[in-house]
Design a protein that fits this description.
This protein is α/β, with parallel strands linked by helices and 300 residues long. It has ten helices and eight strands. An eight-stranded parallel sheet has the order 2-1-3-8-7-4-5-6, with helices on both faces. α9 (248-265) packs parallel to α10. The longest helix has 24 residues, at 85-108. It binds zinc ion. The site of zinc ion (ZN) has 7 residues, from loops.
Amino acid sequence: MLKIAYHPIYNHPLPQGHRFPMIKYELLPQQLIYEGTCTSDNFFEPCLPNDKYLVAVHDPVYYYDLLNLKIPYKEARKIGFPLSEQLVERERIIADGTMKACEFSLKKGIAMNIAGGTHHAFSSRGEAFCMLNDQAIGARYLQSKKLADQILIIDLDVHQGNGTAEIFKDDPSVFTFSMHGANNYPFKKESSDLDIALKKGTTDLEYLSVLKDALTNLFREVRPEFVFYLCGVDILETDKLGTLSLSLEGCKKRDELVLERCLQYQIPVQCSMGGGYSSDIKKIVEAHANTFRLAQQMYF
Ligand SMILES: [Zn+2]
């Protein structure tokens, strides 16, 4: 059975006027249950993880400053969320969701988190709505438990996975791949092991052909034992922040290409949702729902 991490805190209310679309974290599971893609049995509730897994990735000074809400004002502003105990708790619970999803992926081939993809979190600072890097934490968790050694992170959110790239820059056991909009945030990009920056307005055909080739090489050369997939849907043409121009169908095809490879090579994969900022919330939910629909169709 497909296992999906979800906790009510994922949809934490933000102060009035804040435009981050938190509501999608609640609408998506509702949609999946409503249409019959999932039942409540597919979902599990993560909880607060042991701090040791979080400081295996993040600088303890930064981590405990975050916990004690003592991040300096200038740095806190870069995160973009008003720092609160609940938001930090939310971030820790999301990381737990990803670690537990990793365990389910090892058993079932795939598992997901209805949140996460917090790839702008660096080892010692947060940025752009990201405080703790859930998939980096998942990768270190698997390695510390000796459940996987060679890991591949496939980050297809429209924004570069700059935090992830920094965390693993000197670590050959975790290969970081980011395909993103060249003109998108972050404007000063880090170096992943493989970066593909796509020009403004890139459409389905070009996107999918570049991705297909990249995946062929990566699976052959990296020989991962475990894959993390960051399936942000801010690559859609309708996205307010993204500079790429994929259709809903193209975005679904992208997910299919990644999952197909994982299946073909029998590599377990954990998926975290990442961004999605189309003005129409239905578009965001539909694009994310496609990833979950595909997982059900292809694996179960
Ligand atoms: Zn994004």
